[in-house]
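quick one, 387 residues, struct below
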Amino acid sequence: MKNYLFTSESVSEGHPDKVCDRISDEIVDAYLGAFDQSRVAVETLATTNRVVIAGESRGPEEVNSDVMAAVARKAIRDIGYEQDGFHWETCDIEVLVHKQSEQIAQGVDARDNKDEGAGDQGIMFGYACSETPELMPAPIHYAHRVLQNLAHARKSGAVSALGPDAKSQITLAYENNRPVRATSLVLSTQHLDESLTSHDVRAIVEPYIRDTLPDGWITDATEWHVNPTGKFVIGGPDGDCGLTGRKIIVDTYGGAAPHGGGAFSGKDPTKVDRSAAYAARYLAKNVVAAGMAERCTLQVAYAIGVSQPLSLYVNLHDTGEVDEQKLADVLRELMDLTPRGIREHLALNRPIYARSAAYGHFGRTPDEDGGFSWEQTNLVDALKSAF
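---
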């Protein structure tokens, strides 16, 4: 199909699942900030005035239960929760993090001339396309940006009526495989004034949505669904239980590309669920940035304790200018895809993960301190030279 509708959704940093992702990643950052070789696998659950943090770690003792609880409170405060049913200062936080299993560690650690192995088996995907300057699918890109812009307005004080919890969904019409207009816009956002109607909320958010989408994409025929169920005052974990790792499609490509099933948040970069997915995005983005294809999907596979990937698959979706098998060989020459090689190439052993917990891990701007290093396009020249 060349002409079709495609829809993606996003959720805000105040969504219950994203609160949990943020806390889990703040703990990863706390460990990596104290010791860059720390091992962390932390899950968070949040409900009415209660947060439970559980998992395994291997790192400095200074990152103890009290530190993890303090990190969680700071994250909740930054998100903006100061409501009766979920308040950063008064919610009960329970920390159940124990030492990493030695049987897992023995398969992953480097020793006796054996390179460091993958932290688990699994498949990871990377994707890039030419639909936006960020080389992301347009529906998920703009669904993220709508919520980011509303969060900025809320935190800056420009909008005082909205709460932290929100969801967006955008349906775009494609013609000749290019996005050309929005056929429907869905936004559900928490509001602090119980008297506000759906019409009132739309009046608040509509200018930000119009400013976010490209000119001409919103037409008279675009359907709007703003707070379609009515009042949305009880939000966040007080309204719905949250859990780390439940928004993996929101975190990646909005359903426009395959997903291997592994979540990112709460995992240090020895876990290939995270680091190899970042590497696959990095390589796919460089392929598209080099003009070798309009779309690129990569799959990489690992076995626990084994350093070299079991396979690398490349699909250019009939938009490629180069041979896919040769491209796969070139990519493996340009980047060491062992867990250690990925971490060193992208400098992942740094406290850079909390910022990625909301609004997507991909399509972001690389930071000077190394955040979102997988969004760099510094392989373009080498790719072009190889062909």
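The chain has a mean pLDDT of 95.
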